[in-house]
Amino acid sequence: MQMQEPELLRTLQPIWLSRATESMARSLNIRDDLRAQLERFFFLLTQAVETGNSEWLNPVLDEWASSLTQTDLEARESNLLTFIREIMQRTIEVCRQTLDEEQALSLIADLIPHLTYCYEKAAQAEIRVRVSYVSNQLKQVQQSLERLDRSKSDFIAVAAHELKTPLTLVEGYAAMLREALNKKELSPYEHELLNGISTGTKRLKLIIDDMIDVSMIDNNLLSLNFQPVWVNRLLSVIKNELEPFIKERQQTLEVNDFPGSSEMTFGDPERLLQVLRNVLTNAMKYTPDGGRITVDG
């Protein structure tokens, strides 16, 4: 009886091929060589039934998985598994409609393990292809992000240096103007204008220096200059620096002594000042007018 199954299967090939081709070409988006692909599948299925080895079907399943298009891989539903289900349904349908009941049951029982293998193998093969596709997509995204990051870093570096040149000129002319006007009696309004220029240029210089630092960090060029520092002295410098802005907004900046603040430690004073300045500037920004800012540890 076992040896009769391949022969029964071969007698069904013309009917199976006709119905499968018609059904799948109508319901699925299949390539033009559908009939040739189905003929190959049926031949390998027959070999699998004859030998009892489902691995005969591996080549065609791997080929179908590797031929999935970008649209297939981006779709939520698996087109390949839909295709395999369609093959399984047409195969069982042809057996039932063409053979007598005993022959149909016998052949279907012999086919089910191989068809199930097809489904499982196709799912595994498609998963491998999808994982490879997604990995390649992630790699491309990473490369794009790296290019964008390099472009950002280059832009920041160029912009910072281009801004620094005219700022230096403004600072120089402002200093010359102050020196010339110091020989005259200035009104409070004129003092306010000069102080505004000085404050604005200092603030802009800090922003440009931050931009340069970002560019140096991105290019692994930022180095630290370690030397003895005292935290309370750094806080005192920052407090004096921010005092005009504190008074302008009627805020109160309170710096308390805390354990270790007056002890010598090692660090880069310029970078520590930069950090403390940014922290306290943000504190001032988000503290309402008339509010209190306390530094403690």
Automatic annotation (TrEMBL):
Matches recorded under InterPro entries: HATPase_C_sf, His_kinase_dom, HisK_dim/P_dom, HisK_dim/P_sf, Sensor_HK_Regulatory
Keywords annotated in UniProt: Kinase, Transferase, Two-component regulatory system
Stretches assigned to the Histidine kinase domain: 158-297
Enzyme category, top tier: transferase
CDD domains in the cross-refs: HisKA
EC number: 2.7.13.3
Molecular function GO terms recorded: phosphorelay sensor kinase activity
Name the UniProt record assigns to this protein: histidine kinase
Catalytic activity of the protein: ATP + protein L-histidine = ADP + protein N-phospho-L-histidine
Species name: Anaerolinea thermolimosa
